[in-house]
Design the sequence.
């Protein structure tokens, strides 16, 4: 049944993807972040872009890029949630690594941390480009 003018989107809109423009603008945020530049102002509402970035586990980098267009106080507010999430994810992954290392060590296997957890261990900070959800050893 077609929508009447002013009815707004139907329930199927809640399951719709982000749309091509939102995807491209999110990628633009990530490219700007990688180049350490301020991004172009997106046409898509910023919260929609950042929510999409969150689902792709790149919210930190997208927020960092978006914060470059905001006044300092707003930038701090924008960056606080993804920073806390990234730090909590790294703490959880280090716990996973300790547990895996204990089991592997008990079996006589020397573990080697790889990829994101290795970066975090070496740099002493969260992986900046993607939230870790597992540990590669």
Sequence:
């Amino acid at each position: 049944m077609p929508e009447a003018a002013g009815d707004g989107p139907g329930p199927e809109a809640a399951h719709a993807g982000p749309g091509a423009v939102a995807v491209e603008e999110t990628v633009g945020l990530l490219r700007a972040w990688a180049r350490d530049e301020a991004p172009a102002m997106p046409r898509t509402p910023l919260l929609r872009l950042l929510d999409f970035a969150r689902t792709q586990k790149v919210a930190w980098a997208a927020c960092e890029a978006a914060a470059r267009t905001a006044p300092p106080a707003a930038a701090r507010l924008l960056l606080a949630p993804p920073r806390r999430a990234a730090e909590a994810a790294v703490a959880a992954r280090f716990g996973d690594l300790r547990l895996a290392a204990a089991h592997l060590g008990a079996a006589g296997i020397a573990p080697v941390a790889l990829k994101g957890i290795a970066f975090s261990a070496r740099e002493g900070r969260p992986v900046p480009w993607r939230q870790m959800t597992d540990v590669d050893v």
User: Anything to note?
Assistant: The radius of gyration is 19 Å. Helices lie at 20-35, 46-55, 59-67, 72-106, 115-123. The chain has five helices and no strands.
